[in-house]
Design a protein that fits this description.
Blueprint (H helix, E strand, L loop, with lengths): L1 H5 L5 E7 L10 E3 L3 H14 L4 E5 L22
Antiparallel strand pairs: 1-2, 1-3
């Protein structure tokens, strides 16, 4: 979990990984909650060359930046 914090996922709620192929995720996601799931995920990556990990996390509040000045650029001929 430390690596997730390093890349910006501070409030991780759940992690899921995809099993099987295809573009529809319904029925193909497994909850990652223990070492057994981590080993399963490694096996999928070894067999397929990749594994898809989905991180459910809390999104921080957006920082509002007030626009102080606005000077539109008027190009020649747009008068």
């Amino acid at each position: 979990m430390g690596i997730l914090k390093e890349i910006g996922y501070a409030n991780v709620k759940e992690m899921w990984y995809a099993v099987g192929g295809g573009s529809v995720l319904e029925g193909r996601l497994e909850l990652l909650f223990d070492d057994r799931g981590a080993c399963h995920m490694v096996n999928i990556a070894t067999l397929n060359g990749q594994v898809h990990l989905y991180v459910v996390h809390k999104v921080d509040e957006a920082e509002v930046v007030n626009l102080l000045e606005y000077h539109p650029v008027v190009e020649e001929g747009d008068v």
